[in-house]
Amino acid sequence: MFSIPQVLSLLLGFMRDQDSDLWKGFMFAFLLFLLSSLQSLFNHQYMYSCFTVGMRVKTAVMGLVYRKVR
């Protein structure tokens, strides 16, 4: 989460320096892509887990209310 701005800062520093090796730029760009992809993957997994827990809680509460009404 906090590593993407750091890598972006490194990439911008690479772009400012005229004498930098080209492979460093590709490495920073690939690292930025990789970290963004991992962040998206973990975020989707977290949201899925939250949704699943929410549905279980909703089902449990509905079951308790239904038993109480009957």
UniProtKB/TrEMBL annotation:
UniProt cross-references to Gene3D superfamilies, sorted A to Z: ABC transporter type 1, transmembrane domain
GO CC terms, sorted: membrane
MF-aspect GO terms: ATP binding
Segments crossing the lipid bilayer: 21-40
Keyword Transmembrane helix among UniProt keywords: yes
Keyword Signal: no
Keywords: Membrane, Transmembrane, Transmembrane helix
UniProt protein name: ABC transmembrane type-1 domain-containing protein
Species: Hucho hucho
